[in-house]
Structures are given as structure tokens and as C-alpha cells.
Amino acid sequence: MIKRFWYTLLITAIYLIPFNSKGQEYKLSPNAEISLLTCGAGNEYYLSFGHSAIRVCDTSLGIDHVYNYGTFDFGTPNLYLKFALGNLDYMLSVQNYKNFILSYQYEGRWVVEQKLNLTSDERNKLFNLLIENCKKENRYYKYDFFRDNCATRARDIIKKSLNRDFYTNNNTSTTNTYRNLIDLTFREIIYPYTNERLMWWQFGVDALLGMRCDRPVSTADCMFIPFYLQNHLDTTNLCLSSTLILDETKTDNPKSISPVIVFWILCFITCIVTYISIKKNVKIKWFDIPLFSLVGIVGLVVAIMWAFSSHWCVKENLNILWANPIFLLLIFCPKKINKYIIYTLLTCLTIALVNIIIDIQHYNSAVLPIVISLIIRLSHLLYNERRTKKSA
What we know:
By secondary structure, the protein is an alpha+beta fold. Helix content is 47%, strand content 13%.
């Protein structure tokens, strides 16, 4: 908690801009430099994709600022709810370069500086665009992980300042590799950053992301990941030089057990429990109630996010087929309608199985054992109901 507190304090400290804003244009001195700063991943899930910021350094004018689009007010009421619903205001803050580097040094994350090869006009245009963005009426924006974040904001403002094409590749030795990387979907791009230490986070995020994330990305689209923006600059003549400012010193989180393993074990236990229930002719509500409750609650979250969140990436989510809020009805509704609920759920689960095969929307690998477990339990409930009717 202390570590997170100090990190939060440092990263959100806003360095006041020593300029007024009455419409005049500002000019940097001829020896001024503007750079893209790319920061390595942190141990928390939301830090695992790195960070981008823009540095403006002009020793003649006493300027050394970092323009950081990745900050927000930690004191915002209902912060987590607003973030989930896509209503949290992110903002452009301006920090002293030394303070910015200090925060990443404290976290043990690497920082690379790419000095931009800009003409004098382009440099001044970019500087004035940044100042314009810093105005109170312009500095806030609605964060969108895939389409509007610290990296895409840096990409767009650099692109806007240029008198040439931002996407032209000049380094042929890296261009082919880069093009291969972008023949991917949004979901596939984020997978490498959720490694064996963040697999449960990956499972949870996969459950919330809809089929929109399974569309191939363009060159511009893939730059929502700071490392891809960094990679792109390396393939163009926009990058004058690249320097490692900070080495990585952080220790990694311990590895976690894979959700795939956990849910296949659950599936095996489900088979055993169901077999015992059939052989001994006993009901096992103690097993079904927690299973259906957890799946139903996940389904409720998926449905709420789809219906009410403004996040682009959570719409059209076929995870609703297996993580279905209708499972909650099996627990709370009268037994008279159970049969119809079970048939509805079995139909949805069958469609989910078909989706796993044809992959309209990519499911996390842990979904298959969950679907099999649910089909087994629902089929057993139908079997019990028919057996009860025959004996009556």
C-alpha cells in the first residue's frame, strides 16, 4: 500500500505550465528536442501494457516537461464504477522530467527515449499543440483502452504536427517484421502482455471483451500498445536516436496456477460427483448452487457491461452464451419452470460449443471445461426430473 501510495503521488503530480494561453504561438529555441518516452510494464495488470509520454526539452528556455496523457484523479467519486462504464475522465498532465523518471525508477520499470527527427516548424507546431491540449477545456478525455489512450494520443498529436506521412516505413530490415505483427486482432495483441503471472486477469478480461476485439487491426490501430508505437518509430526516419534511460529493476510477480488447469479439474470433479449422484440416487444442490451462482453473476456483469458501458470493446459479447445470467433463475425461480430454463441454457451452451469450434468470437481456453461442466450438470437435472416423473 505504501509503495502504491507513493507511486500514485508521483505519477499524478501536475507540474504547472509556465505559459499563459491567450492564443499566441510559442517558439522553441533551435537546440530544443522533443522525444517519445516509452515505459516498460509494471506488475499490476493495468500497468502491464507499458506507457507513452512526450518530452519537450529546451535548455535555453529552461524547459524540461513531460506531457502525460495517462493520468486521472484518484479522488474521483465512484472511480471504479466510472472506469467500468467508460465515464472516467483521463487528462493530460505536465510533469517535470526528473519527477517523471523518478516515479518509474521507483517502480523498477525501464524507460526508452526516442528523439524525434522534426523540422523547426514541426517542432514548434507540436509544442503549441501540446500547450493547446493543456488548457482546462481540452485536457480531459474519455479513456478507451483500444482507441483512445496515452499511446494513441501521443501518436495522433505527433502525426498532426508533421508535414509528411507518419506511417511511411523507411527501415526495410524491420518493416517486414512489423507488418507481420499487425496481422493480428486486438485480443491477440494484448495476449503477450498477460503472461503466466496474469492468467486469471487474462481470463477475466477475455470474459468481458466482445467479438469486436477479434477483428484484424491496421497499422494505426495496433499503436494503442505503447511498445508498438515505439516499434513503428524505429521503422521510420522520425526516430533520430533511441536511448535507454532506465534499466528494469523490478521483480516479477510469482507465477499463478492456470485457470485452464483449475477448470479442467472442476470438470473432472463434476463428472465424478454426477456419477455418484446417479448411482446413489441423491441430489447434489450443494454443488449446483455455487456453480450456477458464480456463472450467473459473471453473466450478469457481462450483460451490464454490454448494455450500459460506453467502452467500445465490451459490446457484442458472445461470452453471454456460457456466462449467462439466466443461471440465477435456476436458483430463485419456482421448480415448475425449471425445465424450460434448462432447455434454454442447454441451447445457449450448445451454441457456445459451436463458437469454440468455428471461432466467431475467440473464447479463453478455460471456457471449454466450464461449458462441459455446465452441460453435464444441466443434463443431470433434466435426467432427475424425468426420473422423478416416472416414479410418481
